[in-house]
Amino acid sequence: MAGTGHTGITDQRRVDQRRQCLKLFLDIEGTLIVHSRSGSDLIPRPADHLEEFLNWSLAVADCYWLTGVDRSGGYEGILRAFRSTLSPIRYTELQPLLLAIRPTFWGRSKLEAIDLSSDEPWLWIDDAHGEAEMILLKALGLQDRAIPCQRNGLQQVRQTIEMNWLTHA
User: What is d(CA 49, CA 53) in angstroms, rounded to the nearest whole number?
Assistant: First the structure.
């Protein structure tokens, strides 16, 4: 029985190590901020389970913004997107989480912000991975790193990551 306990501890350490080096690259528009129809208008709103997902992401990985709302390596566009979507009180409450996620710089392709040659595991969560980016990821054997997020699919994204990336030692 002592051997079983030791193996469990060793397995948990491996899972913890994997969590420490996992990088999550997060899109905003269509992933964390979704749009609902109101007549002919599309009204932005936070995705279901947004705060829960951000807290979980920050607990299990190093997180980075990988979004078209700000590709400059700064927070201005990121904060503006959430400020225009959330109530002032919710924005103030979530701002520390938003600032805990690091912005990235990229130009023509979101993949410019990811070190594709790194041995550290990374995942890119987006509602619309670009066709050119997916062709490149497939050529490199990294297409499984692109995690699709369907409308309001943050819980499914979390389950996918937990099952496929966090439970394997």
Answer: 6
